[in-house]
Amino acid sequence: MAKQLLGKEVTASLNERIKAQVAGLQEKGIQPTLGIIRVGENPSDLSYERGATKRCETLGVACEKIVLPEDVSQEELLKVIDDVNKNDKIHGVLLFRPLPKHLNQAVIENALDPAKDVDCMTDGSMSGVFTGKKIGFPPCTPQACMEILDFYNIDCTGKKATVIGRSLVVGKPAAMMLIKKNATVTVCHTRTVDMPSVTREADIIIVAAGRAGVVGAEYVRPGQIIIDVGINMNEEGKLCGDVDFAAVEPIVDAITPVPGGVGSVTTSVLVGHVVEAAARMSE
Question: Could you tell me the fold of the domain covering 140-263?
Answer without folding.
Answer: Rossmann fold (3.40.50)
